[in-house]
Amino acid sequence: xxxxxxxxxxxxxxxxxxxxxxxxxxxxxxxxxxxxxxxxxxxxxxxxxxxxxxxxxxxxxxxxxxxxxxxxxxxxxxxxxxxxxxxxxxxxxxxxxxxxxxxxxxxxxxxxxxxxxxxxxxxxxxxxxxxxxxxxxxxxxxxxxxxxxxxxxxxxxxxxxxxxxxxxxxxxxxxxxxxxxxxxxxxxxxxxxxxxxxxxxxxxxxxxxxxxxxxxxxxxxxxxxxxxxxxxxxxxxxxxxxxxxxxxxxxxxxxxxxxxxxxxxxxxxxxxxxxxxxxxxxxxxxxxxxxxxxxxxxxxxxxxxxxx
Length: 308
Fold this sequence. Notes:
Layout: H1 3-18, E1 23-28, H2 35-44, H3 58-62, H4 64-67, E2 73-80, E3 93-94, H5 103-122, E4 127-130, H6 138-144, E5 149-150, E6 156-157, E7 165-172, H7 191-195, E8 201-203, E9 206-207, H8 213-219, E10 235-237, H9 241-244, H10 264-268, H11 271-275, H12 279-285, H13 295-307
Parallel strand pairs: 3-10
Antiparallel strand pairs: 1-2, 2-7, 4-7, 5-6, 8-9
Active site: 132
Subunit structure: Monomer.
Cofactor: cob(II)alamin; [4Fe-4S] cluster
């Protein structure tokens, strides 16, 4: 390993930490051989439901060198979003990742700063930043980079911090020092499988996206299926059940990113407040939030379904 690869890798990790990322790992940009048959089988079985976009760019999802020509390394980072306070107990629930400002914007800004620092330190190189809006298998790359292991609920888990974090990548044409994966620490635990009310975790490490509460409340644009009536456990946007019950999330600590702090009404509102929410209030509470993805009508649909 060249001294420049080692020096650049250390610089990248120090800069990622300075920008607020929990940790940073690096892996070689190459075809994801193990993931290819798994992804193909998952798609062929229709586990993605109406998420047709999952079928696109199959080759690019598995090979970063097709996404960023000439790429040599995938730099993965995780950013904590665990909140200091959670919603009123008598409330319809929103997934914790959507409490504050839309993470795409927050993280993209940090990644731009990181790229600028690298360009200043290293000179001319080519790289692109990704935050789950492109065909990149985030969790697979983070696991390869030693940031955690893929748990039975298919989330990335980390011993010291749990799983309430976002994953982001830089794919660059630099040869760097590569990290090694960590071992799986799920053991015999089946807490996430036992707790999922829609049986979306149909086998350990396998999730049927088309049965997930997050899928129903965010991705599905049609009417919600009556078979799932009374199974959403008051989740109106997303779902954290399989994370909330995971023993490793006992180690979650509140984030220190002010942009992820929620609007006070999001914390204080009770069920009645949500049932009576107007378009104006929706726009105010979720002005720059990921919840805007489901739109006002979508949130009202989800709340009506929970009330029935």
